[in-house]
Structure prediction request, 307 residues.
Amino acid sequence: MSFIWTPGQTLEKLFKVFLITAFAVSCASTRGPNDFVEMSPIKKKAELYYDYGTNALVGQEYTKALTNLLKAVEIIDEDSRYHNNLGMAYYFKKDSKNAVKHLERSIEIDPKNSDAKNNLASINFYEGNYQRAEKLYLEVTKDLEYPKQFRVYYNLGLLDLKKNRVNKAISLFKKAVKENKSYCPAHFELGQISFSNHDYGKAAISFENASLGTCAANPLPYYQHALSLVSLGEYGAALIKFEEILEKFPESPQAKLATRQIQTIKINKLRSNEKQALQYQLNKIERKMIKNRQKEKSDKPAESLTF
Prediction:
């Protein structure tokens, strides 16, 4: 397996469920049935440690991942994949120095390892080294055979947001979803931009797309979708979405917010109904008064005219 990380506040703080699946995975299970048979005993041992370590990395067991990947590298130091995943194990153990060291070693062994370049770019991005990050991301975009370009476009879009280049960011997020229609983080960012621009119709569509696929396990896109519906005045649809959050994510912070929103909508609806009832009564009284005036006028005898 080989990993690629997607950085950014949205993913790290709000899309924690999505974070691990943001890596590019080339599963060991894709090996042919005779691959291990054809390996030397040393290579087979290294590959087993690599597989154990990578599976632990996927399962967020970072200490176990680090231990096994270190053993793989001790046996064979010249494998770019080993150093890429070891670098990410170090990163998730909060050792950026060794993470960068092994990612750079991965690229040194294989200058075409776009996963390692993307991961190194993302660490630079997270640490505020935007120029270095952008340079590495742009290098990856030149790899025309790289199957995960949608993540690179997304990462570049995040960089452009940091630099307040919103239109360029929108273009890159759109490229990301064009490459991969189910890539929910890009849909989410498009929704955020549309919402901030008060284009609630577009925001609602983007947030709905962001609540599908991998991000379906995250309540935030659902909540933002519901807020967009509220802003559009579609209170019935918003209530359904808020109630869906309570059902699917009862312990989430968004569930508490959804409860408040439901109460607000119901109170406003009650007030609106009361206002409509009052207005109906006022209109009824006004109609009665007009009718009475008209009756008084018709009942009054005509006065003689004087010339």
